């Protein structure tokens, strides 16, 4: 069978798609499941160009959510091209998370928020220091760790500890 997300010819398994109709699932390959639950490899997700036009709402929801997690120009372009009806768009935005991400002052953080660094942070492996006062726009929440967010600083996608940011 062909995976509707990555177009791989592999065995498919039912994957629960949260935030929508009770018991909604999409049949996807094991590689996609690993990528969804972990850190996505942008090269794997090139098949989303076809998935965004799927007739299955659960597949569209997964495609939209993955495009939101991939910080590449082509992914942003695909997300801009994607058409979702109001009900499916609400499903995409209704990601059920059990973790609450809070800044250094205890303010609740949400995907897409802008935060400001409250301390100079050396960025390992990138060779620069993210300076205090730097605004990080359009953050992503790390699904399995309430103490981590992701954002772009000086063109690099980095993980930032929530204790070193304040919501703007």
TrEMBL record:
This is Protein YjdM C-terminal domain-containing protein. It comes from Thioclava indica. It comes from the Bacteria. Residues 101-168 form the Protein YjdM C-terminal domain.
């Amino acid at each position: 069978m062909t995976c509707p997300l990555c177009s791989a010819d592999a065995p498919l398994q039912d994957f629960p798609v949260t935030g929508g109709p009770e018991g909604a699932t999409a049949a996807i390959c094991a590689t996609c499941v690993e990528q969804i639950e972990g850190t996505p490899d942008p090269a794997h997700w090139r098949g989303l160009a076809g998935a965004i036009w799927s007739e299955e709402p659960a597949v569209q929801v997964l495609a939209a959510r993955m495009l939101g997690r991939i910080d590449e120009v082509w992914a942003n372009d695909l997300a801009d091209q994607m058409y979702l009806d109001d009900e499916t768009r609400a499903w995409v935005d209704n990601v059920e998370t059990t973790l609450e991400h809070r800044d250094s002052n205890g303010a609740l953080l949400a995907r897409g928020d802008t935060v400001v660094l409250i301390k100079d942070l050396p960025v390992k492996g990138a060779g620069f220091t993210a300076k205090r006062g730097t605004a990080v726009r359009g953050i992503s929440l790390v699904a399995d760790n309430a103490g981590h967010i992701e954002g772009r600083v000086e063109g690099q996608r980095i993980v930032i500890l929530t204790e070193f940011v304040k919501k703007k």
